[in-house]
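## Example record

The block below lists the input lines for one assembly entry, exactly as stored, with component labels intact.
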Amino acid sequence: MSDDAAKSLTRDVFATKPATATNPVDPYLRMDRMPSIWCGGCGIGTTVNCFTRALTECGLDLDKVAIVSGIGCTGRVAGYLNLDSFHTTHGRPIPFATGLKLANPELKVVVYSGDGDLFAIGGNHFIHAARRNIDLVVICVNNHTYGMTGGQVTPTTPEPAIASTTPYGAFEFPFNLPYLADSCGAVYVARWTTYHVRQIARSMKEALSKRGFSFIEVISPCPTLYARRNKLGDGLDAMKYYQEKSVIKHGAATSEVGIGFQGEIVCGKFIDRERETWIEAYDRRHEVALGAKFTPYPTGLVDAKKE
Amino acid sequence: MVAEDVKPKPKKVMKYLGTTFVKAELCKGCGFCIEFCPTTVLEFSKEFNSKGYHYPLMVAEEKCNGCDLCGLYCPDFAIFGVKYNNPEYKPAAGATKKEAE
Amino acid sequence: MKADPRGVLTGAHYMDGDHACCEGAIAAGCRFVAGYPITPSTEVVERIAQRFPRVGDGVFIQMEDEIASSIAIQGAVWGGKKAMTVTSGPGFSLMMEHIGLAAIVEAPCVFVDVQRGGPSTGLPTLPGQADMMQARWGSHGDYEIIAVCPNSPQESFDLTFLAFNLAEKYRVPVMVMLDECVGHMHERVVIPPAEQLDVVERKWTDQKPGQYKPYEVTDKSMVPAMCKAGDGYRIHITGLTHDERGYPVMNWQAQEKLIHRIVNKIRLNADEITRFEETDVEDKQGNVADVVVVAYGITSRVAMRGIELARAKGVKVGLHRPTVIWPFPEKRIRQLAQKAKAIVVVEMNYGQMYYEVERLAAGKCQTRLLGHGGGTVHDPQTICDAIVEVSR
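Predicted structure tokens for the full assembly:
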């Protein structure tokens, strides 16, 4: 891959058509594990595609980018990316990522997981990591369902969607994820749908370069379960719905971007602010309290391989 | 300033701006690339891959500009677009048929 | 290699078991602790929070719950640090899923359980020893762990230090099973100079990225070499059953291969791992006492008093005290059962390690449980009475 192509979001340039060519995203993926387990029309792979573009553009040393996922369809992302990747337990990628980041602050740690994993079982960890402003990028692929286990209701399923555990229609009030992230103190909050591929890649790139807790929600189709049960067509029909019903409002008030069943989807970058990260706060407080006796963390990050 | 100085120089118009490569075996027939191609150069093949999916075929290469939006949408990394920079390039006859790797 | 002197509080101290446990961890090179307050363990992390900023290179974070703590330490392990979490019964129950994760991904880490009365909220400020089986079997699935059992603040230091070494050597989670008595009793703790403390370093791979496979064993040890994130290895680590590349493989053959190794790396090395101390159990001629008392933790100290009382009545009785209690000292108990008349297991529960002893005795000698619900230590007289009774 040429250096210019590597830096741009578009592709290789040829003089004549070669017999074959390698997909420039292949080096970012574990191609020995393809095709992926995701269904045809599932949007998770699209978000991963966008992520590879963001990795190309962000200028980070990819040896130092680590990816942590939970359990579920989106949780499988870690297994397909050619980075140091960790497929942890259900709901717990964020505390794992916290430990990883604090142990080696040089790493850029990305959490990539689904709506059920991050906001049901993982909800407590999300709000605390956001509050603490742990330097993490959290990407939530929100398909309003627990896909892997057969399409159960999640905290983002809107009324009256059918799910396997709400066979007569969901009736709980769903989370408005950008609002939740904003209220907990996330410094970067954006939402897109899998239709908005260039914007997703751009948001991911911005979040990768940002210090602090960044959150990106990507609304994505689940053709096999959520869409089929609710007679919404297939993945492509969902994409057309996103195209039609989404509206971009950068800086919108996050309290007003809740999504109803097949309703309007407000997309955009809602929050982009600066705040002290956990490590910065830790160092500041201990410096105030201990003065010269305290060496700011991370002190002389010991390369454990020496000795 | 004379009118001639600002007259645009005649550019060689490139007939073929770009093309796509498809890995048919990775495709799951979702249709995103076909739907969202801005110049509608892709269509579903009549054939199936070994998993039973129809995969995309380039049917109008002269309209492809190599923007790679198909590549960006693809959830399965099965298609990607490339640009040409050679105005003399002309695809060989039959090049729009199955291009599986 | 030797301990990092910045972390070793050399000298003679008067401190409680919780504090000594903290010092043992720091001396062993622990530089990441995630914890959640729970009586009677809180003092361990309180001291860590105070010590780490002065030791340098270490960080403590109080997580939002024990579930977060038990996995944050594993993130830190893959970030290259030695890590520990600390809890008591209710928190230990919450940590079970992640103990299983540590076992299957083979993450070296230490879990401290300062046992209290249970079940559930139980008796937060009073001792118990009813988590012993849970330490071994608490998570779902097949796996092995190592557990140590200090009976004094000095041993809290020594065995916590050992726990880190065992964790690194076998790439396994290690439990430090304290109890509220040992945790809160103040005694003399002597911490030697750093150059007298031998620390087991992580088994870092010497292979290059591309060559290295996270679960490939390249020597006779059954333990694969480790790496850390950020060094270009681009590893994939998953809690799913996996092959040598770390990739999930969903079939029984991969399951058998993996489970066989993670279980046997401990079982086949049990004789080297397990440790115990004996007082008056066997003499130089190989004669074994009539009655062997098996006890651990604070109960072992009370048992010594019971043994003294029984000896005064003429019974030939000794104490077998496991210090590395999982794997249980199977070989030794089997030997003792051949020669002793009876083994009395004294523990602060309704029977846990007793079942191990009964199983190993296999009917060769009488076995007796002297247990109770916890909340206080045994009355030495009841121990004496039990010893006397079985000796007849």
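The longest helix of chain B spans residues 32-36. Helices of chain B lie at 3-6, 32-36, 69-73.
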